[in-house]
Design goal:
Helix content is 42%, strand content 10%. It is of the alpha/beta class. Bound molecules: 6-O-phosphono-alpha-D-glucopyranose (G6P) and magnesium ion. This is Beta-phosphoglucomutase.
């Protein structure tokens, strides 16, 4: 039976998917690399270096390891400049009550964000205390869609992966959850997140009772 729900942060709890995207788009512009919807979607949920590699696939020239670090730092400075003025208003609508509903149902709550800015963000949003366990992204070696981060969350919560439900807005995230042997709920675009057992338009629509009572939904 269900023991825990593990949430992604950017684009599920916090209104930051757009901020990451804007920072990458600015960097793409800086270096004369193309940027479009497809690239933005592929980057979602993927860690900083993985995202940079996606951007550089179509960059005008190759970059050394040292240059890549400079580019990553620049993207991060664009991102952090926005996050610094964040507060509880940047929680996505319904996010706090979604996490609280899991706790109220007697289940454990975890956070599996690839972002090294997650601790800063949780602090700014004022929701750090809602999670029983937060994965330290700096200790994860394989980016989503690898299952490592969701497995680390389950281990930290002290529960078996099969008893967990993961919630994600990125295709790479849904794949990570499924590869970990967990049930997956997608938040956002149904075509992108098609492999999830259930897809919500927003975290506001999250109803924990559906997953407690139910077998995985049969979607047609
Ligand atoms: C999350 C976001 C990604 C971001 C990654 C790394 O997974 O969805 O867009 O690239 O975190 O974030 P960071 O803050 O460490 O650069
Ligand atoms: Mg996300």
């Amino acid at each position: 039976s269900l023991q825990a729900v593990i949430f992604d942060l950017d684009g599920v709890i916090a209104d930051t998917a757009v901020v990451h995207r804007a920072a990458w788009e600015q960097l793409a512009h800086d270096i004369g690399a193309p940027f479009d919807e497809h690239i933005a979607e592929r980057m979602k949920g993927v860690d900083r270096r993985g995202s940079l590699e996606i951007l550089l696939e179509r960059a005008p020239h190759a970059y050394s390891e040292r240059e890549k670090r400079v580019l990553e730092d620049r993207k991060n400075s664009y991102y952090v400049a926005q996050i610094e003025c964040f507060g509880p208003d940047q929680l996505l609508r319904g996010a706090r009550s979604a996490v609280e509903s899991v706790r109220d149902a007697g289940l454990r709550t975890g956070l599996a964000s690839a972002s090294r800015n997650a601790p800063l963000l949780l602090d700014r949003l004022g929701i750090a205390e809602l999670f029983d366990y937060v994965v330290d992204a700096s200790r994860i070696t394989h980016s989503k869609p690898h299952p490592e981060i969701f497995l680390a969350a389950a281990t930290g919560l002290g529960v078996a992966p099969e008893t967990c439900l993961g919630v994600e807005d990125a295709a790479a995230g849904v794949d990570s959850i499924l590869a970990a042997g967990m049930r997956a709920v997608g938040v956002g675009d149904a075509t992108v997140l098609a492999r999830a057992e259930d897809i919500l338009v927003g975290i506001e629509a999250f109803d924990i009772q559906r997953y407690i009572s139910g077998q995985p939904n049969d979607r047609e």
